[in-house]
């Protein structure tokens, strides 16, 4: 099986711009979650999507948003970028039904965002 | 508040020595705990979970609810164990496992 694929791998933006990151989960995985990783804060949960619905959301401002498509692919968007948004954004997929979850997350390689 | 603490940023041991990576958690409910590992130039991946009670690559971890700890142990470290190790807690809202709370990680360096 192909692993979790994230695009783009690297990108540079300036303050005030917006960015969209994409994540393709492992085939058969319907849950996609997003994490922000920074040297200071470590790995922080952004949100999780299952069956095109946001199921959980972390403590991030409304500038951070996401969505999931019917094929389980997910995108996250950050608007009005700030310098502090520079980070590695990780996507993870997992096998989950409405009432059961294996509990194992499969991570992508991440999208490294630099905000200048 | 839910929190995972890994007190050591870096742990350096010699090959063949025992290893213990510490993890303490704060959670009001019944926790589900995991250890994830990231080897150099590889993706973050699951090493083991407490409900499985299994040994992976010689590593074991026991959940101690009294001490709210989930330390990762290996009796004899190998050079290939060198990696970044993250302890994680599942908040498990509504059955979701996607919401993991991670510790800041411990870098394990095993010297020859």
Polypeptide structure, described:
The complex is a heterodimer of chains A (116) and B (112). By secondary structure, chain A is mostly beta strands. Chain A is 0% helix and 52% strand. Chain A contains no helices and eleven strands. Chain A has strands at 5-7, 10-13, 19-24, 31-38, 42-50, 53-57, 64-68, 74-78, 87-94, 106-107, 111-115. In chain A, strands 2, 4, 5, 6, 9, 10 and 11 form a seven-stranded mixed sheet that branches. A four-stranded antiparallel sheet of chain A has the order 1-3-8-7, with no helix packed on it. Chain B is mostly beta strands and 112 residues long. In chain B, strands 2, 5, 6, 9, 10 and 11 form a six-stranded mixed sheet that branches. A three-stranded antiparallel sheet of chain B has the order 3-8-7, with no helix packed on it. Chain B is globular. The model of chain B has no long low-confidence stretch (mean pLDDT 90). The A-B interface holds A 3-4, 31-33, 35, 42-45, 48, 50, 55-56, 58, 90, 92, 94, 96, 99-109 and B 32, 34, 36, 43-46, 49, 51, 86, 90-91, 93-105.
Helices, strands, pairings?
The complex is a heterodimer of chains A (116) and B (112).
Chain A: E1 5-7, E2 10-13, E3 19-24, E4 31-38, E5 42-50, E6 53-57, E7 64-68, E8 74-78, E9 87-94, E10 106-107, E11 111-115
Chain B: E1 3-5, E2 10-14, E3 19-21, E4 24-26, E5 32-38, E6 45-49, E7 60-61, E8 72-74, E9 83-90, E10 100-102, E11 106-111
Parallel strand pairs in B: 2-11
Antiparallel strand pairs in B: 1-4, 3-8, 5-6, 5-9, 7-8, 9-10, 9-11
Q: What structural category characterises the helix and strand content of chain A?
A: mainly beta
**Major protein interface:** A-B, 30 and 25 residues
**Cα-to-Cα separation, first versus last residue of chain A:** 37 Å
Q: Any idea what the radius of gyration of chain A is?
A: 14 Å
Global morphology of chain A:
globular
């Amino acid at each position: 099986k192909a692993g979790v694929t994230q695009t783009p791998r690297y990108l540079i933006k300036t303050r005030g711009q917006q960015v969209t990151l994409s994540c393709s989960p492992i085939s058969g995985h319907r849950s996609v979650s997003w994490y922000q990783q920074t040297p200071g804060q470590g790995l922080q949960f952004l949100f999780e999507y299952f069956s095109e619905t946001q199921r959980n959301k972390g403590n991030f401002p409304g500038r951070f948003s996401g969505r999931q498509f019917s094929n389980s692919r997910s995108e996250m968007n950050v608007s009005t970028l700030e310098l502090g948004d520079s980070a590695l954004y990780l996507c993870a997929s997992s096998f989950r039904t409405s009432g059961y979850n294996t509990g194992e997350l499969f991570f992508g390689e991440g999208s490294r965002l630099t905000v200048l | 508040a839910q929190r995972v603490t890994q007190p050591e940023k870096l742990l350096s041991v010699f090959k063949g020595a025992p290893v213990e990576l510490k993890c303490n958690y704060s959670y009001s409910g019944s926790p589900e705990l995991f250890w994830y590992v990231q080897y150099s130039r590889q993706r973050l991946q699951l090493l083991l979970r407490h409900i499985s009670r299994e040994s992976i690559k010689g590593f074991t971890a026991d959940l101690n609810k009294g001490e709210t700890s989930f330390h990762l142990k290996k009796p004899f470290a190998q050079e290939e164990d060198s990696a970044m190790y993250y302890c994680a807690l599942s908040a498990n809202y509504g059955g979701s496992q996607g919401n993991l709370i991670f510790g800041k990680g411990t870098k394990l360096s095993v010297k020859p």
